[in-house]
Structures are given as structure tokens and as C-alpha cells.
Amino acid sequence: MSSENPSMLNLRVILPFVLTGTIWGSTWFVITGQIDGVPAAWSVFYRFALATPALFLVAFLMKRRLLLNRPEHRLAVLVGLFQFSGNFLFVYHAELYVTSGIVALMFGLMMVPNAMLGRFFLGERVPTGFMLGSCVAIVGVSSLLFHEWNANPDAGVIGGNVGLGIALAMLGILSASVANVIQANPTGRAVPMVSLLAWAMLYGTIFDLGFAWLTAGPPPVPTETAYWGGIVYLALIGSVITFPLHYNLVREIGAGKTAYNAILTISVAMVISTVFEGYRWTGLTVGGMALAVLGMVIALRSKQVR
After folding, report:
1. What pLDDT is attached to residue 121?
2. Which of 56, 89, 202, 217 lies 20 to 30 Å from 140, alpha-carbon distance?
3. How far is the first Cα of the chain from the last one, in angstroms, to the nearest whole number?
4. Dist CA 221 CA 273 (whole Å)
């Protein structure tokens, strides 16, 4: 295997792979503390208002160039809007209605739009095995969503709030997938990753501020220590550390293979939901989880064949 496509067991791949999967697995639950009594849009803004200067500092300390040309700024704007605005605004609002671990599980299906968009924009082949595995994973995730739907007290009203949460999560998946793929184009590859992300996060944060003010009014000032502790964790650990690692993985091994860490993320998120959110397992949910993971493995293994 060439240096342009390193092995999944290469140390420079496996360490960021495990680290991002584990940290992101925990962030889904931390988000639930950010939307309890505080408008979700403002929590998204607070998170990236803290993370953005920290990421610029990281780029400066790493001596990466911070001056971008016009096409690079345009790309940063797009990545910022799709990743640091659309994705997170949809996710935070989705968790108002759906268990955090289930939203994380849904994001495991991001491999599907990753592959479809990668085929369209980057010319990556989508093999038959990938499509078969994706179908198996979709059936598994659908089983868990069906359980979540029935467990919701408002399920009689066309799925109630769970239906809205599922729709928001799907929009978040699509937004994140677009950001994953477009940053891997030739313009994005010419920019130091941490620099592109810093500018993208800045543009996304500006949009988050405007969106929060327009939809939720003036900014609230929570007094709970736990809330601000969560903001710090999500901003510095869940964003500044993990996003550069994640996007470097996309460049190293491709968007399809990078989606493997969704399995680790899902496992961590579901364990946390079980312990702290009282998620109840049934035969349907156990079977659905097994099918989801099996389908992801089948699909992603097929993506290794070029």
C-alpha cells in the first residue's frame, strides 16, 4: 500500500482514529447538558466562540500559514456553513427529541452520503459490497429508530417529536458529509488543515451568532458550572483537538474509510446513553444495533477496494 493510502493499522492512522472516535462518542451526551434550559443555537455559538481563537492559536504555534487566497476563503466559508453551522445546529436541535446515542448511531450512516458525494465530486468508485452493507446498516438503524418512535409519548402524532428529531439528524448528516467531501478537493488539499478549519470555524461561528440572535433572542448567560464545563470540553477537546485529526484522516485514508470511526463513536455513545440516560435495550434494539454495525463493517470493508 502506498504512502498516499496508508494502512488502517499505521500508527499515524490508528491513534487519531481511536482518539477521535472515543472523544466524539462522549460528546453526544455532553451536548444534552448544553440544551437543557439554554437555546440550542446559543450553545452552538458559545462552543465555537471559544474553540475558534484556540484553533487559530494552534495554527500559529504549529507555524502553519494563516493567510488564504480568495478561492481558499470561499472553501472555508462553505466548510464553515456546512460543518460548524448546519451540522451542529441540526444535531443540537435533534437531541431535544431523540436520545443522544441514537443520534450518534444515525451519524454512522454518514458513510452513505460520503460515498455518494465522493463519487460525484472526487470520482471515487462505489462498489456493490458497499451498497449491500449500507442497506443492512440502514435496516439496523431503522429498527432502533422504530423503537425510539414507539417509546416516545407523542408517537401518535405522526411520530411526534421523534419524527422531527430524526429529520433534523438526517439534515445534520448531510451537512457534515458535504463538508467532509468538499474540503478534500485540490483547493482544500493546498491549505494546511488546521488553518482551513480555523477560518471555516470563524465563518461558521459568525453565522451561528446571527442565527442564534434571530431565532432565540439576546444571548442568555447560564450560571451553572456544569454548563460552562461542558462548553469547554466540547470546544477544546471535542473540537480543537478532534477536528484537525478527523480531517487529516479524511486526507490520509479517504472519507469512506474515515467513517469507520463511527463504529467506535457509536459504541461509546450507546454505552453512555445506557448508563446516564436510562436507554432500555430490547430484542429489537439489540438486533438493530448488531445489524447496523455489521452493515457498516461490510460497507466500509468494500470501500478499501479501489
Report:
1. 67
2. 89
3. 11
4. 27
pLDDT of residue 171: 95
Residue 14 CA to residue 85 CA, distance in Å, equals 28
DSSP label of 190: T
Secondary structure of 57-99 in the HEC alphabet? HHHHHCCCCCCCCHHHHHHHHHHHHHHHHHHHHHHHHHCCCCC
Q: Which residue has the cell 451553572?
A: 224
Contacts of 213 (CB under 8 A, 6+ apart): 219
Whether the Cβ atoms of residue 256 and residue 8 lie closer than 8 Å to each other: no
Whole-number Å distance between alpha carbons of 252 and 68: 22
- What DSSP state is assigned to residue 218? S
**pLDDT band of 303, cuts 50, 70, 90:** low
Cell of 305: 477496494
Residue bearing the bigger pLDDT, 220 or 249: 220
Mind listing the pLDDT tens digit for each residue in 246-280? Answer: 877 877 777 667 767 778 888 899 889 888 888 88
Residues in CB range of 138: below 8 A, 6 or more apart: 109, 112, 295
Dist CA 233 CA 231 (whole Å): 5
What does the pLDDT look like over 121-172, one tens digit per residue? Answer: 666 677 778 888 888 888 988 888 887 787 765 544 334 588 888 899 999 9
- Which residues have a Cβ under 8 Å from the Cβ of 74 and sit 6 or more positions away? none
CB neighbourhood size of 104 (10 A): 27
| Angle 187-189-192 from CA coordinates, rounded to 5° | 110
Instruction: Report the sign of the C-alpha dihedral through residues 216, 222, 225, 229, in that order.
Output: positive
